[in-house]
## 1
Amino acid sequence: MSKKNEIIVIGDYTATQLEKLSEEFQTIFVNKTDDLRSLSAASRKNIKGVAFKGHRPLEFDAASFDLLPELRIISNFGVGYDGIDIQEASRRGIKITNTPDVLNDDVADVAIGMLIALSRNFLNGVDWIKSGAWGKSGEMPLNRTVSGKKAGIVGLGRIGCAIAHRLSGFKMNIHYYSRSEKSSVKDWKFHSDPISLAEEVDFLFIALVGGQETSQFVSKEVIQALGADGILINISRGSTVDEEALLDALETKHIRGAALDVFTGEPSINPRFLELDNVFMQPHQGSGTIETREAMAKLQRANLSRFFANESLITPIN
Ligand code: 8YV
C-alpha cells in the first residue's frame, strides 16, 4: 500500500470522524490553531494539508499559516469559513474548501422548529405538564399562530432558499433581501433594503454568510423595524446581528422574541440572554445530526484526497 499523505487535523471531532480521517491520512491532531505551536517544527514543516473545524472569527490567521510553511490546502468542516483568513490564505496560494449543500435541510429544519417552539411556547408546555399545572390550573396560556404570517429571509443562498421553501408549506408569503434580485424565485418579493424587509414581515430569518462583510448587518434599525409583533430567527452566525441592540429590543419588548442557534463569542454567550423568557436558544446545532455530520466529514475528506491526487477540488471557495 502506498504511503498515506500527512495532514494536521484541527478541531473538535467525534471519535468516528477521527478514525475515518486516520484511515485515509497520516494524522496529527490538535484542538485549536493555537495548539499548532505545541507541535515541533519538524512535524509541522512538511504539512501540506489541514482538516479544520472551528468558527471562532479568523482563528486560522497569518500567524497560524506561518507555523505551516508548506501548507497548500485547508479543508473546512462547515459551509461557513469565517474561521479562516481567506484573503491571507489566497495571497499565500493556500486553497480552501468547505462543505455546502449537505447541511441545508437540517439547518432549515432547525430554523423552522425554533420559530414554532418559540411562538407556541413549547418549553412552557413541557413545564406545564411536569409541574402539575395542567391538572391544577387547566389549559396552558394561549400562544400565537405561525402559519399564514409573512416571512422575510435575509440572505437568499442555499440555506435561505431551503427555509423559504419550507415556509411556503406553512402558507406564508415570502419576502427576501439579497444583494440582487433572483430571477428564479418570482413568487417571492425582493427588497433591496433590509429595513424595508423587516418593516413588512412578522418573522425575519437570518441566513447570511458570516465574516467581516456581514458583521452586524442586521443592525439596530433593522431590529427596530421588525416591530412589537416581530420575531428574529438566526441560524447563520452571531456576528451577523447587532447583539446588544437585539438584547435591548428583547428586554424592552420592542420585538416579540428571538430564536437563536448562534451567538457572538459562543459558547460563552452574553449572560443577558439567560434572563429572557422571549428567547428560544439552541447551542449551534443546526447541522448537528449523525447523517449530516457524516456527509460533511466525507466531503471534507474527499476534498483532501482530491488535492493529494492532483485532481480538481469538489467545493473550492478561493
Ligand atoms: C458547523 C456551521 O460547521 O457549517 C457551518 O458553517 O456553522 C456548522 O455546520 C458545525 O457546527 C461544526 O462546528
Note: The CA atoms of residues 97 and 316 lie 4 Å apart.
## 2
Amino acid sequence: MDSIIVTGNGPLKGQIPIAGAKNACLTLMPATLLSEEPLTLTNAPRLSDIRTMTQLLQSLGAEVTSMQDGKVLAMSSHDIHNHTADYDIVRKMRASILVLGPMLARDGHAVVSLPGGCAIGARPVDLHLKALEAMGAELDLREGYVHAKAPGGLKGGIVDFPFVSVGATENALMAATLAKGTTVLKNAAREPEIVDLAQCLRKMGAQIEGEGTSTITIQGVDRLHGATHPVVTDRIELGTYMLAPAICGGEVELLGGRIDLVGAFCEKLDAAGIGIEETALGLKVTRGNGRVRAVDVTTEPFPGFPTDLQAQMMALLCTAEGVSVLEEKIFENRFMHAPELMRMGAKIDVHGGTARVTGVDRLKGAPVMATDLRASVSLILAGLAAEGETIVNRVYHLDRGYERVEEKLGAVGARIERVSGR
Ligand code: EPZ
C-alpha cells in the first residue's frame, strides 16, 4: 500500500487546477442507463471511484470509453443485458446504488446489492427505497440484495424526504424522468451536484423544474435521447486546496474555482482571517503572517457548511488562535481524523458529534493513518505546515477522491512525495 510523505516547508505559491466533481460524475454516469443513445461526459475527474463506476456500468452491458487521459467518458447503454449490480463491486463504492433508479425506470426491473456501511457511518439506503416505492416500485430485500420491479413502469408520485439525502434525491430524480406522470420531490437535496445532474437530464430531454431548491418537479417522458455534458467543478477538491495556503501561508490561485460552490465555507475562512479573491481564472487564497482565528463550524446540507470539508477545516483550526467547536450533523462517525491529528500534537476533545479544538502554535510531523477519503487529505494538509515529516499511510482512500494530489501540491511548493508499498 502506498504512503505519502509530507514535510513542512513554508508558504505556498502558484496555481492549482480544480477537476470535475467526483460526486457529480458518480451520478451522471448511471444516467446513461436512461437512454439507448450515447451520453458523453467531459471534464471528468481521473479517480479510482470513476473507474469502479465504469466497471459496474460495463458489467451491466453499457459501453464506457475513457478518452483524453480520462477526462472524457463516452458511454452508450444500447444493450443492457444484465440487471444485477453485484456485491463485490457495490461494497467497494456505495454510489453504486445509483444504478437502481435508472435501471428500474428503463426496464422495469433491477437487482442491486445493498451497499453496507462504511467507515463514517451505517449509511442506510432506506430513503432511496421509499422514494422508488412512492413511484410504484415493488421492492423485496433478500440475501443482501434489493430485488426491484415496476411491471407496468414507474408512475409519478409525491416523495416527501424526512431529511435531506443527496443520493436518494439523485436516484429519485433519475427514476422520475421516465415515470408516467408527474413526480414531486419535497425536501430534496440542493447540492450543486443535483443541479448538474438535472441540467444533464434536461439536455437528454427530461422535463425538470426546481433543481437547487427543496422542491423538484419532474414530468415523466417516454424516452430520453443522448447528450454531451461537462461535469461541474469539484467544490470539495476546491475547498480542500483552498485550505493549503490557509494552513501554510502564501498565495495560491485555484483554477476553475467558483465562489457560488463554496459560499458557506468561504464565510468561515473569511472569519478565520483568510483572504479570498475572485479572479478571471478562479479563486485566489492568501494568508499573510499571524495566526488564523478560531471559528465554530456546523455541517449541514447545501448551502450550509459541507460535511466533506469538515476534516480539512479541522486541520486548519488545530493551529488557530483560540478554541473552535465543530459539530458534525450529517454522519455519525466522521471524526476519525481527530486521533491522528492528536498524534501530531493537536488538542482535540471529541464528545459524540462535537469536537472542541484548542489551537496550538504548530503541529509536529508523525506517522498517521488514513481512515476515509476526507480524513486522509486532512492529514496531508496538517503535514504541510507541521514541523518535520508526516507519513500518511493507506493512501488508497485518498486516490478515490483526489487526482495526483502530490503533483498538485508539489507544483505550489509543498514538499510531498508518494512512496509505494510500505
Ligand atoms: C453523498 O453521500 C456524497 N457521496 C458524500 O460524499 C457526502 O458526504 C454526502 O452526500 C452528504 O453531502 C456521493 O455523492 C457519492 P446522504 P450520500 O444520502 O448520498 C443518511 C465523499 O467524501 N441516509 O446525503 O450517501 C446517511 O447515513 C462522500 O465524497 C439515511 O439514513 O449522503 C447520512 O447520515 C462521503 N438513509 C445522511 O443521511 C438514506 O437512505 C446524509 O446522507 C440515505 C442517507
Note: DSSP finds 14 helices and 24 strands in the chain.
## 3
Amino acid sequence: MEEVIIITGASRGIGREIAKTLAKNGKKVIANYNHSLNQAVELQEELKKEGIEIDLFRADVSKKQEAEKLVEFTIKKYKKIDVLINNAGISDGKMITDITDEDWHKMINTNLYSAFIMSQLAIPYMIHEKQGQIINISSIWGMVGSSCEVLYSITKAGMNGLTKALAKELGPSGIRVNAIAPGMINTEMNNEFSPEEIEAIKQEIPLEKIGEPNEIAKCVKWLLEDSYTTGQIISINGGWVIT
Ligand code: NAD
C-alpha cells in the first residue's frame, strides 16, 4: 500500500503545495485544514481532475481532542501512518511589550504544541511498523531569532529542539525526524508586508528573490526518498541565513 501521509494546515500555502506534490507522486495524503474549507475542497477537486484522490480532515491541531480525531480517522481508514508533516502555523509580529498571555498561548499551541501532540499521537503507529518519518516545517527565525517576532521565534526554536531530540529517541525504532526551516516564501502568511518591504527584503537575500512553496515541497519529496538523514534542520532560504 502507498505511504500514508498526514499534512497539517494543508489547505493553502506551503502545506497545499506539499500535499499536491506528494499526492501526484502516488502518496496517500490526508490534508488537514481548520478554517479554510473552501480552499481545501478546491485542492481536492483540482487533484480529482487528474484522477488523484486525497482525504480532507478538519481539525484544529492546537487542541488535543481534535488532533486525536485526525489520527483516529487516518488509522481507521488506512491502519498506519508513514509520514507526519507538521506544517500548520501562524505568525504575528509584535514588540515583546505588546504580547498578551492570550497571544502566548495561541502561538505556542498552534505552532509548537500541535507538532508535539501530533507526533506523540502518531509515533506509536510508526514504532509498531518499525519505520516512519516526521517532518517539521520550522523557520529561519527559530535558528537566528527575529526582531518583533519573539513568540514566533520561540515556537520555531522549540520545533528545532523537538526535531533533534526526537531524532535521537526514535532513530533506533527506524523513525527519522527532520525539520525544514524556510526563509521568506511567497504565501498568504506574508500578506502583511507591503511591496516596498518585500523589495527591501529581496535586497538582503543573496539569490535576490523570495522562495516559492514548491521549493519546500521538493525538499519534502527528497526527504521521503532519502534514508540516512535525521535530526537535521534543513534551511531553504536563498542564502538569507547562512550558519
Ligand atoms: P499560510 O498561512 O498560508 O498557511 C498556514 C496554514 O496553517 C493555513 O492553512 C492555516 O489554516 C493552517 N493552520 C493554522 N492554525 C491551524 C490549526 N490550529 N489547525 C490546523 N491548521 C492550522 O502560511 P504558510 O507560509 O503556508 O505556512 C506554513 C508553515 O510554514 C507555517 O508553519 C509557517 O510558520 C512556516 N513558514 C512559512 C514561511 C513563509 O515565509 N511563508 C517561512 C518560514 C516558515
Note: Residues 8-9, 11-15, 32, 34-36, 60-62, 87-91, 110, 137, 139, 182, 184-185, 187-190 surround nicotinamide-adenine-dinucleotide (CB under 6 Å).
## 4
Amino acid sequence: MAVPVILDCDPGHDDAFAIWLAAGHPDLDLRGITTVGGNGQLAQTTHNARVICTVAGIKDVPIAAGADSPLIRTLQTAWDIHGASALDGPVLPEPEVELDPRGAVAMLRELLDESAEPLVLIATGPLTNVALLLRLHPEIQPKIREIAWMGGSTGRGNVTPYAEFNCWVDPEAAAVVLASGLRFSMVGLNVTHQALVTEEVRDRLAAIGNATSAFAVDLIDFFRAAYQVSEGMAAPPLHDPVAVALVAASSIVPTAYTRLDIELHGTETLGATSVDLHNKLGRPANAHVAMALDAPRFWDMVEAAIRRMR
Ligand code: BDR
Ligand code: CA
C-alpha cells in the first residue's frame, strides 16, 4: 500500500521536483501540500506551489499556506539561488488550483486526524510549520509516523560555512521538531550534493517531452546558472526530492541512526547541525541521518515521476 505523505515546502526550484516526485511516485499517496516562507516570501512560495501543481496537472491535492516568518527570527530568503520570484527561469502560468482556506497548521492537523493510519511529513524548507503544529497540537503526534526533512549537513553548510539554508532560516523550529521525539530523518547537503543535475540528467528529463519536463528544464537551466555564480558548481544539486526518495524507497538513501543537535547559540555556527557520528558526546541517538545516495536509482525515480505528469 502507498505511504500516505504530506509535503511541507518553500518552492523553490528543487521543491518543484519534490512535489512532482511525491505526487508521481506509485508508492506514495500525497494527501496535502503546505507552504512556508523560505526560498521566497510566503506569498511567493504559496503561489509557486500552485503554479507547480498547475503545470503538472496535480489538481486533487489541497494546498495551504503556513508561516510567513520563522518562530523568532526575521525571514531570510534565497533570492541569489532561486531568483526574485523564488522560481525564476520558466514563464509561470496563472495557477488553476485553489488555495485551501484552512491554513497550513489547521489543514495538517485535520489531514492527520482524519487519516486511518499515521502519515509521513516530508519537509523541504524551514521547519516552522511543523514546529507550530507540534506545539499547538501535541495530541496529534501519534498520527505522525516520521518526519523526513531536507536540511542540515554532516559537514559544511551552504549559507554560512557550517549552516545549511533550511536549518539556518529557522534553527529554533528544527530544535523543537527534533525534541518532539518523533522519528526524524535528516537528508543533508552531504547527500544532496550527490544529486547533481549533469548535462546527461538534463537531457534525460528534456527527452520526456511533456509540459512538466519542459518546465523542469527551464528550472534547471536557471538553477544551474545560479549555482555556478553562487557556489562555483558546474551542476546544481537537486536537494529536496532526495528527502522524498528516502520515504519512497529507503534503500536509495542509506541512513545512520546517530545523535543530532542544532546549534542555536554559536556566533559563527548558528543553524549548524552537529551530527555525532562517532558518539563523542555519549548522548543517545535521536535521528536517522542520510549518509549516501544511489544516484542512478534516484534519477530513474525522478524521471518516472515526471513521465506520469501532464
Ligand atoms: C535547501 O535550501 C533551499 O534553497 C532549497 O530549496 C533546499 O530546500 C538547500 O539548502
Ligand atoms: Ca526547499
Note: The chain has one domain: 3-307.
